[in-house]
Model the fold of this input.
Amino acid sequence: MMSRSSNLLSRSGSFRPENLGQNAMAMIGNLCFTIFVVGVLIFTIIAATYEPEDPLFHPSTKMTNFLTSKSNATFKADDTVVRTGEDFLGPNQTAFSTFINLTDVDVPMGIGLTESVTEDNLDCRGKTDDPIDCTDPDVFHLLMRAAIEKFKDIHFFRFGKPVRGSNDSSCHMAWRFRPKEGKTASLYKDYRSFVVSRSENCTLDVVSIGDYHSGGNARKRKRKNKGGSDRTTAKLDEGFEKAPQKIEGQDIALPVVGEAVNDSLPVVESESSFGSGKYLIYSGGGDRCKSMNHYLWSFMCALGEAQYLNRTLIMDLTICLNKIYTSSGVDEEGKDFRFYFDFEHLKDSASVLDQVQFLSDWNKWHKKDRLGLHLVEDFRITPMKLSEVKDTLIMRKFGSVEPDNYWYRVCEGETESIVQRPWHLVWKSRRLMDIVSAVASRLNWDYDSVHVVRGEKARNREMWPHLAEDTSPESLLSTLQDKIDDGRNLYIATDEPDTSFFDPLKDKYSTHFLDEYKDLWDENSEWYAETAKLNNGNPVEFDGYMRVSVDTEVSFRGKKQIETFNDLTKDCKDGINTCTSSS
Done:
């Protein structure tokens, strides 16, 4: 008993009054250390999983707000059609409020009238078969009035002077226009053929107006510059114009869809000019063959850094198209930046060079002229730290470990508030947008649209439980009856491969699908010829990304637009329990 008591006393010795202070301090130290470790763990988890909203896919209606925002630069994956600079230019109807009306165009005597022959026009008797003088101001005014009267759903901003057409009774005339209910800041150009007749009483009338882009003689032509590359003339021949005002006071160029495209590669004119330049190139990395959104998000980071450093960006114009857009189902190399984006606008607005040409010049001259190379292999080295580099070329070299080898990582962290992505420099391909304009013109810019998403999402009932039923023909008829008037032109943009699926809608609407317009990209089309020229004479496939891009843009130009998510179904765009206030 005595032994057990002595053991207990020895064990409880630490609770003696003289030991309490020391023990309390030890316990507090252990508790603080535990709290610190738990805090570090929680912070690490949050930092690794936090993924803020991406400004690219939730754009502001005003480009100025977008360009000055300080939102996080982290990329969030999305397989939809990319947004480019023109999408961030608000339509701002005030800027387009001044356009050419019928009242602006004179009605000269003897033009489109049915008066008897007078002493003043006796000299035209017996000359009804003489060629029409398309340069006559009276003919010009006749054609302008005919165009304004025929195309009631567009606003005209400029008419170019008419030129002779394909025969003595034909004139070709071009104009710039915009749909009355246009939702983008773009302008469009059309040029059409007019058949003009002269009656026995010497009056002139427009007999017919040709289809979209039928007046090829009035199209702005390319001319050769001193370097031998194609270059377009500075402006249309003097005509009649009411130009749009600046967008919200900004001196920003507007896309003009339908103009001749000059996307020849810029060249360095001499060894001395090459040596005096400053350049930035990105090499390697894991961005290759990713989605188009990923590609552009990274490319815009590189372009932003080049502008910040006041350097020329060296571009790899080749693109690897991700398998989600290819008919083969595998990633496809050998695509060209100019198939998808407006390189002419980019090279006119920023300093860029083709990588192949640059490396050829570099290999010729860098040793001879002792041109310096500054290599950067850590994306955490910010553009701000490179601002004082004097070497001719800065090369950012990216490794093989994802995601640290993504180009866009350069624009994260402290850089995001300093280096802005210059969205206004990158527009969609005007060749693709010209197909969009052609489709809309064939519908006279007077149609409504519905975007119907089906495909894999409709088959995945676990993530989208109601989508298949909500996009069935019966449900579509029920939903659209209160939204779209009977008999309207209805453009259906969809990933449903069998368009006969929508045949029940034909009883109420005049339905239209992208494949009705295949002649716009087939082997006889202008798009086919021009893209083949870019591709060393080899034909270019109208691939999945191009199809989705054109389909979406045509839908976006409908007077009324019905979307799948929010309008047709309550399912969330990204699957169950992912809905937000903006989707």
Remarks:
- Residues 1-15, 47-77, 109-119, 223-237 have pLDDT under 50 and may be disordered.
- The first strand starts at residue 154 and ends at 159.
